[in-house]
Amino acid sequence: MNWTGLWNRHALFTPLLAIVLLAGCAESKSTGPSLDELDLSSLAATVDTEAAKSSDTPTTETDTVATLAAPEKNNLKLGFIKLTDCAPLVIAKEKGFFADEGLQVDVEAQPNWKTLLDRVINGELDGAHMLSGQPIAATIGIGTEAHIITAFTMDLNGNGITVSNNIWQKMQENDAKLKSPTPPHPISADSLRPVVDEYQASGTPLKMGMVFPVSTHNYELRYWLAASGIHPGMYTETDTVGETNADVLLSVTPPPMMPTVLEAGNIQGYCVGEPWNQQAVAKGIGVPVTTNYDVWKNNPEKVFGVTKRWNDENPNTHVAVIKALIRAGKWLDETDADGKFVNREEACRILAKPNYVGADYDVIKNSMTGFFYFQKSDKRPMPDFNVFFKYHCTYPWYSDGVWFLTQMRRWGQITEPKSAQWYDETAKKIYRPDIYRKAAENLVAAGQLTDAEVPAKDTDGYKPPTEKGDFIDGVIYDGHDPIGYLNAHTIGNKDN
């Protein structure tokens, strides 16, 4: 039982409980219940009802959200993949935010994204750190089919695109500006184009790794390549690998295996989350040429996902989990007066533990504390490389879901044209700001968030259109116009 929350529920609770206890202790014929016999939850509910009846003022929304019903399920198992952006789950556990909600949570690493999704669907996991594309793809029937929802976006940015030393040297030969120890950024794929042509002429196309067919990494890598006229391949009804018309072959590799596979020469580059780009720098086997912040400034990355059925059976538990995750994100992004992260080094030490990310503390710290190493000679400040709370990033924006749907259509995973209305309706089946807002408003009522830290109540769930420089190719994204966005690109499907 969450004693702290119970004792603080209403000012009326303490005197009423005191009366009951005194009655039990008084030397009279009346015999009150012992403390062990008291049903405190029922007593609190009685106080709530009586307070509402006796109040001279109408019940406000703040009054409504001040307390939440108890979780239906207290013992939870949540899955994650060994990446630094699992941090909100880990921190919610390690800093006691889950416990504050009356939840006993086990956080368990999974071997790959498919296994993680399958275990959520079959109930072995209550929920998980997921690729943003996984709830969407599952719900619309790409791959494993199940209705998955998300009420929480775990982070922005956090990925990089790394190439082998050999490929980097060839890119430098094609662009003299890249020969500097600190070349200008962002680095496009323009200097990679002749390398791709060289590999194709040899009969062995260039190969690059990404973590899953519906991952942000797949779409970001495709976006970066296509922006320079390099075709990353199309999915078709008969080509589920996505190699039709491809100039570069993209294959799935689990994130922790990326550096090993690159070093072995099985791939010549990859797109992955941290710390596996920084690992390539530390081992001296590759060079990160860009981050996804430069492909799309402040792009959504991971989400917390559950099945709709699980949410329907455990709505209070779900809200409690989201409350803890919001607090964890805020803790991770806390800065001092000089803008320096207050808690990130502690977070890196926690994530470095073998049962979490299991990489060296120094490697995790490279990107998590506001910097990023492109080369050992090229350390750059990137305070927004990992964003866990600010910019209202944890809110489940419909426009984020629509973007992923456009990429699935652009590259052929969605095989038929869809209307703009379909994009909107589909995003709203999956992204659940109503659940997020219930959690957030409860935190506001408790003084743990401010109103300004929650999106305005009159938002329609869509972010404003991007600015000209937000995407590496300069294309503007407006979630209200998915068809126009699709048609603005040279490579990929276009719809009427």
Automatic annotation (TrEMBL):
Query: What is one cellular component GO term in this UniProt entry?
Result: endomembrane system
Chain ranges passing through the membrane: none
- Localization (cell): Endomembrane system
Where is the major localization of this protein? membrane
Q: Which residues form a coiled coil?
A: none
Record InterPro entries? NrtA/CpmA_ABC-bd_dom
Keyword S-adenosyl-L-methionine in annotation: no
Q: Which UniProt keywords apply?
A: Cell inner membrane, Cell membrane, Membrane, Signal, Transport
Signal peptide start-end = 1-23
Which protein is depicted? Nitrate ABC transporter substrate-binding protein
Q: What is the lineage of its organism?
A: Bacteria, Pseudomonadati, Planctomycetota, Planctomycetia, Pirellulales
